[in-house]
From TrEMBL:
This is Pectate lyase superfamily protein domain-containing protein. It comes from Actinomadura rugatobispora. It comes from the Bacteria.
Length: 390
C-alpha cells in the first residue's frame, strides 16, 4: 500500500536506519488496522488536511479511518460531501463530552454554513465517532438540512456514536435507512435538532442527551415526519421551552423504550411550554417505560392550532398508539410547573386506538387521561386513574 506519509527522520544513526527497514510496509499495515492520522496529511490548515485526507480515503478500495488527534481542530470550508466508506474518528479514549474541553478528547470547531452534506441519490457505509463538534455560530449546521424527506438524498447504513454537538442550528435533517445514532450529547442548538424520516433505524439504544436554552417554544428536539420500523432507546430529553418529540407519520413498528422527557430545574418560562410528545399521525407507535416531568406548562406559547393539551397530545390521523407503564411524576419530591388540571395524555376525536397500560403517577402526579370523544382511549390496569371526555 502506498501511503501519503514520509518515513521518519533517520539522522540519528545507522542502527535506527536498520531498525526502520520496511517502514512503508509497516505504516501501511498500521493504517489498515488502526486508520490514517489526520495530522499526517499535508496542509497549511485543518481544512487543507481534511480535504487531502478525504481525497486519499475516497481513492482507496477500502477507505481507512481518518483518526483525529488529542487536540482542537478548526474546519470552516465545508460542506464536505459524505462518501461511501467515510470513517472519521477521535483519538483513542475519546467519547461524547458535552462540556469537557480537556483530553483525551478530539474537539472540532465548525465554521461556515455546514460541515457535511448528503450527496445526490444515496450514500452508505459511514462511521463517525469519538468527536466533540462545536458550532462557531448559531447559523452553522452540522449537516446541510435535507428538505425533501420523501424523495431527497438518503443516508444508508451509517453510524454516529460517542459524539457531542454543541450550538448548531441543526444536527441532522435527513432521510435514514438502517442508521444508528447512540451515546451522544446535543446541547445549545438553535432550531429543531433532529428531523428524520425513513425506516429500519436504531437511535440511542444505550442512551443520549438532548437539551438547549435556545430553542423557541414552537420548535422540536426530535421530529419524525415519517418513521417506521425503528427503535428509540433511553434518550434523555430536557425539553426546555420546545417540545421534545413530534411524530407525523409512519407505517408502524416505531418503538420508544425508556425515553425520558424531564423539565427538572426549569422555571415556568423555561420548562417545556407545550406537550412533551406531540403525535399528529402515524400508525403502530409504542412508548414503553417513558418518563414525564414538568411539561405542558403554557401550551399557548407554542402558537400551534389546535393548542396542545396534555403532556402527551395525540391528534390528526394518529392510530394504534400504545403507552406501556408510563410515569407522569408529580411535584412532591421536586418543584415543577405543570398546571394540576393538565392531563397526562389527551387524544382528539380524530385519533384512533389509543391504549394506556398500567400508567403511574409517582410523587403526587395527576392521574388524569382525557379524550375528546368517548371510545378513543382505552385504559388497562389504571387503578385510581380518571378517563374522562373533555
Amino acid at each position: 500500500m502506498t501511503v501519503p506519509y514520509e518515513a521518519p527522520d533517520t539522522r540519528f544513526g545507522l542502527s535506527l536506519e536498520t531498525a526502520l527497514d520496511g517502514i512503508g510496509d509497516r505504516v501501511g499495515l498500521h493504517e489498515a488496522t488502526y486508520g490514517a492520522p489526520f495530522d499526517a496529511f499535508v496542509g497549511k490548515t485543518d481544512d487543507d488536511r481534511l480535504a487531502a485526507a478525504f481525497s486519499y480515503a475516497r481513492a482507496q478500495t477500502r477507505p481507512p479511518a481518518i483518526v483525529l488527534g488529542n487536540r482542537e481542530y478548526s474546519l470552516s470550508k465545508g460542506p464536505y460531501p459524505y462518501f461511501p466508506g467515510l470513517r472519521l474518528v477521535g483519538s483513542l479514549g475519546s467519547g461524547e463530552r458535552e462540556f469537557a474541553m480537556t483530553g483525551p478528547h478530539s474537539v472540532v470547531r465548525v465554521g461556515g454554513s455546514a460541515l457535511f452534506a448528503v450527496p445526490a441519490g444515496e450514500v452508505r457505509n459511514i462511521w463517525i465517532s469519538g468527536i466533540q463538534f462545536r458550532a462557531a455560530s448559531a447559523s452553522t449546521h452540522f449537516q446541510v438540512p435535507v428538505t425533501d424527506l420523501a424523495n431527497g438524498p438518503r443516508v444508508q447504513d451509517a453510524t454516529f456514536i460517542d459524539l457531542a454537538w454543541v450550538g448548531f442550528a441543526t444536527v441532522m435533517h435527513a432521510r435514514h435507512l438502517r442508521c444508528r445514532i447512540d451515546r451522544t450529547y446535543c446541547n445549545e442548538g438553535t432550531d429543531t435538532q433532529f428531523r428524520l424520516a425513513g425506516s429500519d433505524n436504531y437511535y440511542w439504544l444505550t442512551g443520549g442527551y438532548l437539551s438547549s436554552t435556545k430553542l423557541a417554544a414552537d420548535r422540536f428536539y426530535l421530529h419524525f415526519p415519517h418513521m417506521s420500523r425503528t427503535d428509540v432507546g433511553p434518550l434523555y430529553i430536557t425539553p426546555e421551552k420546545a417540545t421534545g418529540i413530534r411524530i407525523d407519520g409512519g407505517y408502524g413498528g416505531l418503538t420508544f423504550t425508556g425515553t425520558k422527557l424531564d423539565s427538572t430545574g426549569r422555571d415556568a418560562t423555561r420548562a417545556c411550554q407545550g406537550a412533551a410528545v406531540l403525535i399528529t399521525g402515524g400508525r403502530g407507535i409504542t412508548f414503553d417505560k417513558a418518563w414525564f416531568f414538568g411539561n405542558a406548562v403554557n401550551p399557548a406559547a407554542t402558537g400551534r392550532t389546535p393548542a396542545d393539551r396534555g403532556q402527551v397530545f395525540i391528534r390528526g390521523a394518529a392510530a394504534d398508539v400504545t403507552f406501556m407503564t408510563p410515569q407522569f411524576s408529580g411535584f412532591d419530591a421536586q418543584a415543577g410547573h405543570t398546571p394540576s388540571t393538565t392531563p397526562a395524555i389527551y387524544a382528539t376525536s380524530t385519533a384512533r386506538g389509543v391504549r394506556v397500560v398500567a400508567p403511574m403517577a409517582p410523587n403526587g402526579g395527576t392521574k388524569l387521561i382525557q379524550q375528546q370523544t368517548a371510545g378513543t382511549v382505552s385504559t388497562f390496569a389504571a387503578d385510581g386513574w380518571s378517563l374522562s371526555v373533555a
